[in-house]
Amino acid sequence: MKTFTHCMVLLLCASFNLLQAQEELQLTEKDSLVKSSWMFGLGYNIVDDSGDVFHELFSFGKQWNALAYPSRISIGRYFKSGIGLEAIGSYNKYKVGKFIDGRTNLEETDYYGLDARLTYDLNKLIGETGWFDPYVGVGAGYTEANNESRATYNAVVGFRTWFSDRIGLDFSSSGKWAANNDNATNHLQHAAGIVYQFGIEKGLSKKGEAKLALIEEMAEKRQKEQDSIASVQREKEQAALAARLAKERKEASLAAAEKAKIDAKKQREMSIKNEIDALGLAYFDLNSSYLNTNSKKVLDGLALVLQKHPELELEISSYTDSRGTSKYNNWLSERRVARTKEYLVKKGVDVSRLETEAYGETNLLNECDDNTYCEEEKHQENRRSEFVITKF
């Protein structure tokens, strides 16, 4: 018994430690990343159309063309696979004095670009960071620049940095190669702006997946320990249940026997009551307390019932009709109840089993009171002795 107690204590301690560790390893917002979304962008674009492509890339004053207000808009859909599809519209101006297509620009002209591109998130290869999002891509577009229209093949490299799941900054550089105009030069277009994600679907990062696997492993261990404790507890509960069921069966059996006994008693009492009710009442002639032949037959039957059931006790109550004074009727009902009782005693009924009450003209069974005329048959109904069982 002592060894079992020690084992239970160790299991409880281990379970507490596992539970505490699991609480410390809860998944948080930092363990999830945006896996797919829609993305809207607004920002600036800078065009380098000097004609030398990659020569003097950072010649800001001589070769870069930019506007003071946002001039680039984009909308894109990005998928769990890392693939993104994006449509971009941009506007710019070639300034006077800038180096355009290999010569100094002498007239300000408009730049229009409409591009579509396919990108790939490099985090799928180098590991997700959650805040730094480099990408590469290819695409095609249409550009109207320096009074020359051209279709272009594009390549892009860039990155996004995120302040939250929805807001971030986007920086990119695109090379655009003219496809169908020998007079148009290839050029570079740089972009910087703010991006907003919506329609977001999130998932766990690799770190989050590892944490989830560890939490599940710890939960499995804790469950095994709890199952071991539960098994012991279950055995105790089963033993207690078996004892309780045995007790309930015994109590149910006793209750059923008691109910059967009560039902039998009620049935017996109802049978005796019906037997007495079937005899009817003992009626009297007008102004008489003597029992007539019919009344004696009723009392003879009642005496037999009382002899058959020696435990019965009765209350005999006698009444008059409404004719005559109340005083007279009270005296007459007392005479009637006394003669009823005497007759039963003469038939062998113990006097201790009989109680009597005289009610005079009260408790009439019909409407035949002092103010109502009735035939003799109606008055006869009220001249009676009644019998009520007081004890079975």
Provide a descriptive summary of the structure in words.
By secondary structure, this protein is an alpha+beta fold. The chain is built from 7 helices and 15 strands. The chain has helices spanning 2-24, 60-63, 123-126, 206-279, 293-308, 326-346, 376-380, and strands at 32-48, 64-65, 72-78, 83-94, 99-100, 103-104, 109-121, 132-145, 148-162, 167-178, 187-204, 282-283, 313-318, 354-358, 384-391. An 8-stranded antiparallel barrel has the order 1-3-4-7-8-9-10-11. The chain has a 4-stranded mixed β-sheet with strand order 12-15-13-14. The longest helix is centred in the middle third of the chain and has 74 residues, at 206-279. The two termini are 61 Å apart.
Q: Level of helix content?
A: 25-40%
Give the topology string: H per helix, E per strand: HEHEEEEEEHEEEEHEHEHEHE
How would you write the strand order of the largest sheet? 1-3-4-7-8-9-10-11
How many beta-strand elements?
15
Summing up helix and strand content along with how strands pair, one would put the structural category as alpha+beta
**Tally of separate helices:** 7
Could you give a short account of the major beta sheet? 8 strands, antiparallel, barrel
Averaging pLDDT over every residue, what do you get?
89
Report Rg.
56 Å
Q: What are the low-pLDDT stretches, counting only 5+ consecutive residues below 50?
A: none
| Termini gap | 61 Å
Beta content: 25-35%
Dominant shape: rod-shaped
